[in-house]
């Protein structure tokens, strides 16, 4: 098989890259390890930056998001029982759209199908070869048959546990990493959201987040141990903890049937550079942020926006400037977002340890600063809604 860009991974990064390349008249084939059913039902991100929502609309894949997504103009922070609203529309003129990642993936997959795009699900034994020559290829097994996909470029969009990053020799790759001493218990519940906007709460028992997916479905997260067993969290305990950590006088948290529970460990991770020969990494394959800033999906979108543009410029003009500058340009945004995500995490979580009381005083001081300083609130707001994509 031959195509112009071989894309490993059919998550949001891989599917959006394939679609953006198609808009530029460039062929690609997406190779995805999981089934279509699995990819489209994986519950993950929910917050789209203004730039992400704009890009999806401009790329013609934002119609359902426009109808069903919920635009928010602010977010709440809470310290113990004190709740503070950051009015980011007022402070920055921009907003966020709450729309589930699996909906974005469904919209992209459907559009790829309608445009005749090739997305092969349930591929196995994927290996990337000869990326430092001008004839790279990907070998894989599909429907029991071993195949080779030859391309001009290979895009590694295969997430944190993918194989592309390890194709880059250890000697030419530097990894920066921080592992946090906690994880998130993610909960999906069939109950109307109890607040029109998100609430990030720092309570003496730990972090909690109130989010939503629709008028009938709420999404919650609770700080827990990184390797916490779901057996420790029967539904009654989840609701009791959410009531405690999110509670504030005069506000009621509505309860309903819990339909999904998962535990995610938390890390900050960057592998530099994002390019090796004709292999380009994008999204979680190259970097992970702790989810507190809601940035992972948005960073993946920003990477592939840049990559699609660089490949298109190369095909149109022969110029390699965009391709050559891809890694450095992405890394600049990646590190800004790493900083913000680490900061939001540090503000709202308990790290434990001997100086826990000191840490909580610092968090209180930062919270008070956000309450009393427009400059501090604006810094949070402009990072949360997202800095311009390019
Ligand atoms: P992935 O979504 O991981 O996709 C990679 C794909 O590659 C997968 O489909 C995988 O099956 C496939 N694959 C892996 N290995 C292979 C292989 N060898 N061969 C072929 N295919 C392979 N981000 C936000 O922006 N906002 C949020 O609110 C937010 N909340 C989050 C909450 C949670 C609980 C979690 C876990 C994450 C959250 N994120 C959030 C992060 C976001 O989900 C990820 O950053 C995003 O999925 C990255 O997209 P991706 O396409 O790079 O990687
Ligand atoms: C959601 C996830 C996040 O990581 C976050 O910071 C806010 C909301 C969500 O899944 O709704």
From TrEMBL:
Q: Does the keyword Flavoprotein apply?
A: yes
Give one GO molecular function term: FAD binding
Q: Which InterPro entries match?
A: FAD-bd, FAD/NAD-bd_sf, HB_mOase, RIFMO-like
Q: Biological process GO annotation list?
A: benzoate catabolic process
Q: Origin, by domain of life?
A: Bacteria
The record ties this protein, via Pfam families, to: FAD_binding_3 (PF01494)
- Give start and end of each FAD-binding domain: 2-340
Q: Which UniProt keywords apply?
A: FAD, Flavoprotein, Monooxygenase, Oxidoreductase
Question: What PANTHER family does the database record attribute to this sequence?
Answer: P-HYDROXYBENZOATE HYDROXYLASE (PTHR43004:SF3), TRK SYSTEM POTASSIUM UPTAKE PROTEIN (PTHR43004)
Q: Sorted alphabetically, which NCBIfam families does this protein's record hold? A: pbenz_hydroxyl, PRK08243.1
**What's the name of the protein?**
p-hydroxybenzoate 3-monooxygenase
Species name: Saccharopolyspora shandongensis
